[in-house]
Amino acid sequence: MTEQRRIYFASDLHLGMQSPQESLRREKLFVQWLEEIRNDASELWLLGDVFDYWFEYKKVVPRGFTRFLGTLASLSDAGVKIHLIPGNHDIWIFDYLPGEINLEVHRKSVQKLWNGHRFFLGHGDGLHQGDKGYKMLQGIFKNRLMQWFYARIHPNGSMAFAHWWSKKSRMKHGALGSFLGVDNEHQVQFARKELEKHPDIEYFVFGHRHIPYDIRLAENSRVICLGDWIGNFTYGVFDGQEFRLEKYLPGQGEIIRQ
Protein backbone atom coordinates (compact mmCIF):
# COMPACT_ATOMS: atom_id res chain seq x y z
CA MET A 1 0.00 0.00 0.00
CA THR A 2 1.35 3.41 -0.94
CA GLU A 3 0.62 6.74 0.66
CA GLN A 4 -1.65 7.51 -2.28
CA ARG A 5 -3.92 4.53 -1.56
CA ARG A 6 -5.21 5.03 1.95
CA ILE A 7 -7.93 3.36 4.00
CA TYR A 8 -10.43 5.69 5.66
CA PHE A 9 -12.74 5.09 8.61
CA ALA A 10 -15.78 7.03 9.83
CA SER A 11 -18.81 6.36 12.01
CA ASP A 12 -21.86 7.86 13.68
CA LEU A 13 -23.15 10.28 11.10
CA HIS A 14 -26.72 9.70 12.34
CA LEU A 15 -28.14 11.14 9.15
CA GLY A 16 -31.80 12.03 9.72
CA MET A 17 -31.15 13.09 13.29
CA GLN A 18 -32.15 16.62 14.30
CA SER A 19 -34.03 18.85 11.84
CA PRO A 20 -33.97 18.10 8.10
CA GLN A 21 -31.97 21.29 7.56
CA GLU A 22 -29.30 20.35 10.10
CA SER A 23 -29.11 16.77 8.84
CA LEU A 24 -28.67 18.07 5.29
CA ARG A 25 -25.91 20.45 6.42
CA ARG A 26 -23.97 17.57 7.97
CA GLU A 27 -24.65 15.33 4.98
CA LYS A 28 -23.20 17.94 2.63
CA LEU A 29 -20.13 18.31 4.85
CA PHE A 30 -19.54 14.56 4.85
CA VAL A 31 -19.99 14.43 1.08
CA GLN A 32 -17.42 17.21 0.79
CA TRP A 33 -14.99 15.08 2.81
CA LEU A 34 -15.73 12.06 0.61
CA GLU A 35 -14.89 14.09 -2.48
CA GLU A 36 -11.59 15.20 -0.90
CA ILE A 37 -10.50 11.61 -0.21
CA ARG A 38 -11.65 10.31 -3.60
CA ASN A 39 -8.22 10.39 -5.26
CA ASP A 40 -6.21 8.59 -2.57
CA ALA A 41 -8.76 6.19 -1.01
CA SER A 42 -8.55 2.48 -1.66
CA GLU A 43 -11.17 1.52 0.95
CA LEU A 44 -13.78 3.28 3.06
CA TRP A 45 -15.03 1.66 6.26
CA LEU A 46 -18.22 2.97 7.84
CA LEU A 47 -18.40 1.63 11.38
CA GLY A 48 -22.08 2.01 12.06
CA ASP A 49 -24.88 4.45 12.85
CA VAL A 50 -24.49 6.06 9.46
CA PHE A 51 -28.23 6.67 9.64
CA ASP A 52 -30.17 7.60 12.74
CA TYR A 53 -32.75 5.10 11.51
CA TRP A 54 -32.84 2.80 8.51
CA PHE A 55 -35.20 -0.01 7.63
CA GLU A 56 -35.49 -1.56 4.18
CA TYR A 57 -38.84 -2.91 3.17
CA LYS A 58 -38.93 -5.26 0.20
CA LYS A 59 -40.10 -2.49 -2.13
CA VAL A 60 -39.41 0.64 -0.06
CA VAL A 61 -36.31 2.34 1.28
CA PRO A 62 -36.15 5.49 3.45
CA ARG A 63 -36.32 8.78 1.60
CA GLY A 64 -33.50 11.29 1.70
CA PHE A 65 -29.69 11.09 1.83
CA THR A 66 -29.43 11.16 -1.96
CA ARG A 67 -26.20 13.21 -2.00
CA PHE A 68 -24.53 10.80 0.40
CA LEU A 69 -25.71 7.64 -1.35
CA GLY A 70 -24.92 9.04 -4.78
CA THR A 71 -21.38 9.90 -3.72
CA LEU A 72 -20.85 6.43 -2.27
CA ALA A 73 -22.03 4.95 -5.56
CA SER A 74 -19.66 7.20 -7.48
CA LEU A 75 -16.72 6.22 -5.26
CA SER A 76 -17.59 2.55 -5.65
CA ASP A 77 -17.80 2.89 -9.42
CA ALA A 78 -14.35 4.52 -9.33
CA GLY A 79 -12.89 1.46 -7.60
CA VAL A 80 -13.06 2.42 -3.91
CA LYS A 81 -14.10 -0.60 -1.83
CA ILE A 82 -16.83 0.42 0.61
CA HIS A 83 -17.57 -1.56 3.77
CA LEU A 84 -20.21 -1.13 6.45
CA ILE A 85 -20.48 -2.61 9.92
CA PRO A 86 -24.05 -1.74 10.99
CA GLY A 87 -24.52 0.02 14.31
CA ASN A 88 -27.41 -0.09 16.74
CA HIS A 89 -29.33 2.55 14.75
CA ASP A 90 -28.97 1.03 11.27
CA ILE A 91 -29.18 -2.69 11.97
CA TRP A 92 -31.79 -3.19 9.28
CA ILE A 93 -29.61 -2.68 6.24
CA PHE A 94 -30.33 -5.69 4.06
CA ASP A 95 -29.71 -6.01 0.31
CA TYR A 96 -30.53 -2.57 -1.10
CA LEU A 97 -27.21 -0.81 -0.45
CA PRO A 98 -25.09 -3.86 -1.35
CA GLY A 99 -27.02 -4.15 -4.61
CA GLU A 100 -27.05 -0.46 -5.51
CA ILE A 101 -23.59 0.58 -4.33
CA ASN A 102 -21.70 -2.71 -4.20
CA LEU A 103 -21.22 -1.99 -0.51
CA GLU A 104 -20.11 -4.96 1.60
CA VAL A 105 -21.97 -5.38 4.89
CA HIS A 106 -20.23 -7.08 7.83
CA ARG A 107 -22.70 -8.23 10.46
CA LYS A 108 -20.03 -8.80 13.11
CA SER A 109 -16.74 -7.26 14.15
CA VAL A 110 -13.92 -8.23 11.82
CA GLN A 111 -10.15 -8.51 11.85
CA LYS A 112 -8.20 -7.24 8.85
CA LEU A 113 -4.53 -7.44 7.96
CA TRP A 114 -3.19 -4.53 5.90
CA ASN A 115 0.47 -4.29 4.99
CA GLY A 116 1.41 -6.48 7.97
CA HIS A 117 -0.68 -4.45 10.46
CA ARG A 118 -3.61 -6.19 12.14
CA PHE A 119 -6.85 -4.31 12.83
CA PHE A 120 -9.91 -5.19 14.90
CA LEU A 121 -12.93 -3.28 13.57
CA GLY A 122 -16.41 -2.98 15.05
CA HIS A 123 -19.19 -0.56 15.85
CA GLY A 124 -18.25 -0.84 19.52
CA ASP A 125 -21.61 -1.44 21.20
CA GLY A 126 -22.56 -4.35 23.43
CA LEU A 127 -18.99 -5.01 24.58
CA HIS A 128 -19.78 -4.92 28.29
CA GLN A 129 -20.58 -8.43 29.50
CA GLY A 130 -23.01 -7.20 32.14
CA ASP A 131 -25.23 -5.22 29.74
CA LYS A 132 -27.79 -8.03 29.38
CA GLY A 133 -30.79 -5.77 28.74
CA TYR A 134 -29.09 -4.10 25.79
CA LYS A 135 -27.99 -7.41 24.32
CA MET A 136 -31.49 -8.85 24.68
CA LEU A 137 -32.96 -5.86 22.85
CA GLN A 138 -30.39 -6.24 20.07
CA GLY A 139 -31.29 -9.91 19.81
CA ILE A 140 -34.93 -8.95 19.24
CA PHE A 141 -33.97 -6.37 16.60
CA LYS A 142 -31.85 -8.92 14.74
CA ASN A 143 -34.42 -11.72 14.88
CA ARG A 144 -35.65 -12.55 11.38
CA LEU A 145 -39.21 -13.30 12.51
CA MET A 146 -39.46 -10.03 14.44
CA GLN A 147 -38.12 -8.17 11.39
CA TRP A 148 -40.82 -9.81 9.26
CA PHE A 149 -43.56 -8.68 11.64
CA TYR A 150 -42.09 -5.17 11.83
CA ALA A 151 -42.06 -4.96 8.03
CA ARG A 152 -45.83 -5.43 8.05
CA ILE A 153 -46.22 -1.99 9.66
CA HIS A 154 -46.77 0.87 7.23
CA PRO A 155 -43.52 2.88 6.79
CA ASN A 156 -45.18 6.10 7.98
CA GLY A 157 -45.97 4.49 11.31
CA SER A 158 -42.78 2.50 11.80
CA MET A 159 -40.51 5.44 10.95
CA ALA A 160 -42.41 7.81 13.24
CA PHE A 161 -42.09 5.30 16.07
CA ALA A 162 -38.37 4.72 15.40
CA HIS A 163 -37.55 8.44 15.42
CA TRP A 164 -39.55 8.88 18.64
CA TRP A 165 -37.64 6.00 20.23
CA SER A 166 -34.29 7.43 19.12
CA LYS A 167 -35.14 10.90 20.45
CA LYS A 168 -36.29 9.44 23.77
CA SER A 169 -33.04 7.49 24.09
CA ARG A 170 -30.95 10.61 23.43
CA MET A 171 -32.90 12.57 26.03
CA LYS A 172 -32.23 9.84 28.56
CA HIS A 173 -28.59 9.06 27.79
CA GLY A 174 -27.39 12.13 25.92
CA ALA A 175 -26.43 12.27 22.25
CA LEU A 176 -22.69 12.66 22.70
CA GLY A 177 -21.87 11.21 26.10
CA SER A 178 -18.77 11.95 28.13
CA PHE A 179 -15.45 10.19 28.47
CA LEU A 180 -15.57 7.76 31.43
CA GLY A 181 -11.82 7.47 31.92
CA VAL A 182 -9.33 5.03 30.47
CA ASP A 183 -10.14 2.25 32.94
CA ASN A 184 -13.92 2.61 32.69
CA GLU A 185 -14.52 2.76 28.96
CA HIS A 186 -16.02 -0.57 27.85
CA GLN A 187 -14.24 -0.46 24.52
CA VAL A 188 -10.88 -0.12 26.28
CA GLN A 189 -11.74 -2.92 28.69
CA PHE A 190 -12.76 -5.16 25.80
CA ALA A 191 -9.62 -4.37 23.81
CA ARG A 192 -7.37 -5.21 26.76
CA LYS A 193 -8.99 -8.64 27.15
CA GLU A 194 -8.92 -9.30 23.42
CA LEU A 195 -5.27 -8.30 23.30
CA GLU A 196 -4.45 -11.08 25.77
CA LYS A 197 -5.81 -13.61 23.25
CA HIS A 198 -4.53 -11.86 20.13
CA PRO A 199 -1.38 -9.89 21.02
CA ASP A 200 -0.71 -9.10 17.36
CA ILE A 201 -3.65 -6.69 17.06
CA GLU A 202 -2.19 -3.21 16.64
CA TYR A 203 -5.36 -1.17 16.19
CA PHE A 204 -8.80 -1.59 17.75
CA VAL A 205 -11.08 0.83 15.90
CA PHE A 206 -14.64 1.51 17.06
CA GLY A 207 -17.48 3.99 16.76
CA HIS A 208 -20.62 4.19 18.91
CA ARG A 209 -19.33 6.32 21.80
CA HIS A 210 -19.23 9.58 19.80
CA ILE A 211 -16.05 10.54 21.66
CA PRO A 212 -12.82 10.70 19.65
CA TYR A 213 -9.94 9.12 21.52
CA ASP A 214 -6.68 7.34 20.74
CA ILE A 215 -5.39 5.35 23.70
CA ARG A 216 -2.24 3.25 23.82
CA LEU A 217 -2.78 -0.20 25.32
CA ALA A 218 0.74 -1.55 24.85
CA GLU A 219 3.88 -0.61 23.00
CA ASN A 220 2.41 -1.74 19.67
CA SER A 221 -1.33 -1.59 20.31
CA ARG A 222 -3.90 1.21 20.46
CA VAL A 223 -7.66 1.50 20.83
CA ILE A 224 -9.34 4.27 18.84
CA CYS A 225 -12.86 5.63 18.94
CA LEU A 226 -13.65 7.53 15.75
CA GLY A 227 -15.92 10.11 17.37
CA ASP A 228 -18.81 11.27 15.19
CA TRP A 229 -20.05 13.65 12.51
CA ILE A 230 -22.50 15.46 14.78
CA GLY A 231 -20.20 17.70 16.77
CA ASN A 232 -16.68 16.32 16.32
CA PHE A 233 -16.37 15.61 12.57
CA THR A 234 -13.54 13.14 13.12
CA TYR A 235 -12.31 10.18 11.13
CA GLY A 236 -9.46 7.69 10.89
CA VAL A 237 -6.95 7.14 8.12
CA PHE A 238 -4.37 4.40 7.60
CA ASP A 239 -1.61 5.12 5.08
CA GLY A 240 -0.09 1.66 5.13
CA GLN A 241 2.31 2.42 7.98
CA GLU A 242 0.44 4.43 10.59
CA PHE A 243 -3.12 5.03 11.71
CA ARG A 244 -4.11 8.61 12.48
CA LEU A 245 -7.23 10.07 14.06
CA GLU A 246 -8.03 13.37 12.39
CA LYS A 247 -10.59 16.15 12.56
CA TYR A 248 -12.10 17.33 9.31
CA LEU A 249 -11.59 20.94 8.40
CA PRO A 250 -12.39 21.67 4.76
CA GLY A 251 -9.16 21.35 2.84
CA GLN A 252 -7.01 20.13 5.75
CA GLY A 253 -6.75 17.60 8.54
CA GLU A 254 -5.99 18.16 12.19
CA ILE A 255 -4.40 15.25 14.09
CA ILE A 256 -5.95 14.40 17.44
CA ARG A 257 -3.92 12.77 20.19
CA GLN A 258 -5.08 11.80 23.67
Question: Can you characterise this structure?
Answer:
- This protein is α/β, with parallel strands linked by helices.
- The chain has one domain (6-255): Metallo-dependent phosphatases (Purple Acid Phosphatase, chain A, domain 2), CATH 3.60.21.
- The protein has 7 helices and 12 strands.
- It has helices spanning 20-37, 66-77, 96-101, 132-142, 144-151, 155-173, 186-197, and strands at residues 6-10, 41-46, 81-84, 104-105, 110-114, 117-121, 201-206, 212-218, 221-226, 234-238, 243-249, 252-255.
- Helix 1 (20-37) links the parallel strand 1 (6-10) and strand 2 (41-46).
- The longest helix is centred in the middle third of the chain and has 19 residues, at 155-173.
- It starts with 5 loop residues before the first strand and ends with a strand.
- The model has no long low-confidence stretch (mean pLDDT 85).
Provide keyphrases for this structure.
single chain; 258 residues; Purple Acid Phosphatase, chain A, domain 2; five-stranded mixed sheet; 12 strands; 24% strand
Name the strands of the widest sheet in spatial order: 4-3-2-1-10-11-12
Category by helix and strand content: alpha/beta
| Inertia-based shape | globular
Measured between the Cα atoms of the first and last residue, the distance is 27 Å
Tell me which CATH architecture applies here. 4-Layer Sandwich
User: Would you identify the CATH H-level superfamily?
Assistant: Metallo-dependent phosphatases
At the first level of CATH, the class is: Alpha Beta
